[in-house]
Amino acid sequence: MTTARPNIIVLHCHDLGRFLGCYGHPTVRTPNLDSFAADGIRFDRAFATAPQCSPSRASLFTGRWPHANGVMGLTHGDFAWDLHPGERHLGGLLREAGYRSVLLGVHHESLARPDTGLAARLGFDHVDTSQIMATPVADLACEHLSELAGGQPFYLQVGCFEPHRMGGARDQEGTKGFIGDHVEPDDELGIEIPPYLEDTEPARVEIAELQGAVAHMDQAVGRILGQLDRLGIADDTLVLFTTDHGLALPRAKCSLYDPGLEVAMIVRYPARGWLGGRVHTDLLSNVDVVPTLLELLGVDPDGELHGRSFLGLLDGGDYRPHEEIFGELTYHDYYDPRRCVRTGRHKLIANFSNAYAFMDPSQSWNRRCTPRVEPMAYHSPVELYDLAEDPHELTDLAAEPAHAATVEELLARLHTWMARTGDPLLDGAVTSPLHRRTRDRLVR
Hints:
Elements: E1 7-13, H1 31-39, E2 41-47, H2 53-62, H3 66-69, H4 90-96, E3 100-105, H5 115-122, E4 126-128, H6 134-148, E5 154-160, H7 201-231, E6 237-243, H8 258-261, E7 262-268, E8 278-280, E9 284-285, H9 289-297, H10 311-315, E10 325-331, E11 335-342, E12 346-351, E13 382-386, H11 404-420, H12 433-443
Helix pairs in contact: 1-7, 6-7
Pfam family, one: Sulfatase
Family: Belongs to the sulfatase family.
Protein name: Sulfatase
């Protein structure tokens, strides 16, 4: 087994969940990522720490929970959440360890800044966020790979926007779809409606758009992977592909149900034997990625990490699996604090507000996809789902006496986690950067 330090590439996209052919979705055309999974290691039960963009990415790149690292909401515009001053980013940690560190495309894990400011804050040698769409980002990545190959080991972080919703001239009035002005809908292999949504004609139109955006993203990833082969560095490069959270559909993104938290996670590193199409079903969280990479490289994180390394799982050696994983939502479009604990069998969600049962990420006045449950219902304080009998989390069991012991056990686990990691929700309501900024204008 190699002991050399590999090049490291993290490829990530928006709002994908596990909507790929290799994850059992036959109508989604993703030949490049399917081939990558067949050649690497696929994780079938990997989850995000949060069902929205910035908090999840902040965990992915710091190894710490959103409520601990400071990013409890979106980082752009007036949302303005940011990493706490002492938080360390993977790009900076690897640069200090001797890596050439480059960020290209989507950045959404700390306060939006000019590229030079981002490089200084996060510790990158170079940042270029001038392009975020998949094709030009792939162009940038291929160009930088040509420059990076053959020198010191490098860390390359590449993010693309698709398949996030994006407005375009072809959108129907009152809707925001997935195709913008540059993607074509794709129903060549049929249409797969997620089982938590009603199968209607408007939903089929929208899912065709989504499938087209995913296929477009897959083509860009394929170009980047192909460049590794052309440069002769694929064997000595660790590539991790993932996404931030689930699909931008009702009851997925912005919810703590599995469709909101589930993520694709595929890893390949040929020189260490991380290949062959292995599939793992252990529970993983994206907060585990940083501890794993740092353990691989023998790098001291210089601070507390919340994730658990799964290096042993990748190496086929000893590994202590998670008994449960956790998820959280505090702010997205609005304040809707929720926390959850998920075991192999059950999901418990604790709700701290009187908001609707789940946020709707459709970004549209006229919604085309309809949930199979009443969307305008309000939170109950606690929800419980039996994932073996009810994998789509449609039947809440929390109020049933037969499940009272399970509710109490999972509430205790959730409380222990929140207390151990310093979750501010235990002390009361959390205010946003906008709240504080507007208050300061009132009182100055």
